[in-house]
Amino acid sequence: MLDPIATIFGPTGYMASAFTGYESRPAQVTLARAIATALANQTHLVADAPTGTGKSMAYCAPLAVYTHETGKRAVVATANNALLEQLCTKDLPALRALLPVPFSYALIKGRGNYLCRLKASGDESEELPGIPSPDDAKQLRAIDEWAKHTATGDKSELPFVPSDSVWRQRSTQREDCKRRGCPRNAECFAALAHATASTADIVVTNQHLLCAHLAARSLTGLDLILPPFDIVILDEAHEAASIARDFFGYSLRASSWSRLATWLQRAASHADPSDRSELINLSTTVRDSSRAVFDCAVTHASSPAYNTRLRAPGWCTDARALDTLTAATQSIARHARRTAARYKSSDIPQEARRGAEAGNSFRRARACLDNLESMVTVSPGSKEQNGWAHWITVEEYGGTVNKFGERRDVRRSATLHGCPVSVAGMLHEQLWGKADSVVAVSATLATHAGPSGFAFARGELGFPSDTATLAVPSPFDMRTQTLLVTPTGLPLPSDSRFPAAVADILRRTILQARGRTLGLFTSYRVLNEVHSILSAAHLPYRILRQGDMPRTSLVAKWKRDTSSVLLGTASLWTGIDAPGETCSAVVIDKLPFPSPADPINDAIGERLGKEAFARDSLPRAIIALRQGVGRLIRSKTDRGVVVLCDARLATKSYGATVLRALGMPTRTNRVEAVGQWLDGVK
What we know:
- It is a single chain.
- This protein has 682 residues and is α/β, with parallel strands linked by helices.
């Protein structure tokens, strides 16, 4: 019997025949073979495959063969849309041209990624808070021009990244979409993408949409968002738990009630005269009482009584407004349900639209009530103590700046948040327990060598205890390609002298590396202080800083100018692929421990007590650090240096654990060794 993996990846296989200079990668073959075995046996697999393994081809190839042979459907869920684009514009097209196996694939994103025909036509739009800025107005005009000729309505086609508030005005939002009640439903971009995916062998999507599908299926037993599937590939699986937490939680804003009030006003315009005044009064009541409740949230979040998250009830001190808002929302839900039922089966487009709007308003009202109740009743024995965390964030907007640079008349708005602390149980039941095979793969799933290295991943993802695990070795020779520098004599990160010390190490590294450096920071504060110091040093290399331009443009500029330096925070720790000389040195300010000021981390710390550091904080830091270090070596010909500026690697007992996890055996304390290493001098 032919070995399909060898036939594809072997020295004389399809890959070798299609690509000149192709070299079979043992790590890729090992991963592909393990995935093929899991699919054939209908079992699960969790795999740690370092950068350069060729993960996407390693799962796409056996997946294409298996879906063709069995007629089963697979879903590939990634952590970000950039990887979706790579799979659908590069990897899967290449594989389809390569293999003598016919298979189909389709890309589907969440509704919020698609242009709404109804909103783009000007028939319906979402109001921006306050007066649109010139930039917002410019973006809206550009979107409206693009809307005239786009074939897919996919936001990623835009040559710029629109702000969230602007895009919401023109996009298909799940809570507002009228679906069959929409007069433009037949040409809806989101619906067309779903229809295409419903016939594909491999459906490529993101983890957010997969979570939405799992949640809907758990409530209804129906496949409402994604087409039915048998297999799931969870790529960049180290992100999955965080994405699931965000999705299964909620964010509650005053604008949620504003939209309900707006619907009431529209409903009043075509209601019976006897109901019209009641609906208008109800609209006013909702606006006024919701404003009062959210003003209480702003006040509480700014007071000494609030620390990181809500721990007890009482944040809303206007009990009358709260009771009024609750009663008014209940009235809205009743009216919306009756209206939706009245027009549910109507063949008249205008009435069908009213029914769809009423149905959305009913669901929004119920969600507002449920989420507000959970925020108000936070107390021992409530969701807060049963695996949920609740907190408040406050944003400032509007206002004016006087001649002295002082901001006046600034408005503040609160958002109420709730989130499950752990999603392992939900994923265990709805993902691992329902699919024939789930393959979770990432460059950073294991925290150390051996089966126990996946303990943290299991606690996050909830995979069954009998799930096979695999850690393939790096395809690169880390001993000869990488140098790890851990300078001595540095102050601790908590020391006020720390930013200046990091700036000095970075300056010396940049000179040694002749530019060609990526600086990764755990906070904007240190990033900006270091950038200020480096700018004053007048180095002969361009210094690029995250935030000075859009991320995509920033990274592209850094890649073009190979001697430039790029400084960034969280979003630059992952997703950057710069093989060659551009990224010859990576300097990291300190170990990326999760912030204790984050409400979820605070809740985890409270639950785990003294074990929180070893069981949660340290594993998270190791995984994040491995992601950052993974930006360095992207090919077998790369040669580079990692400089870690955290003195705790030498002074704390966990330092040795962190260093072992990096798998970089060649080390020094001397920054002066950077230039020699990069020049190949031993």
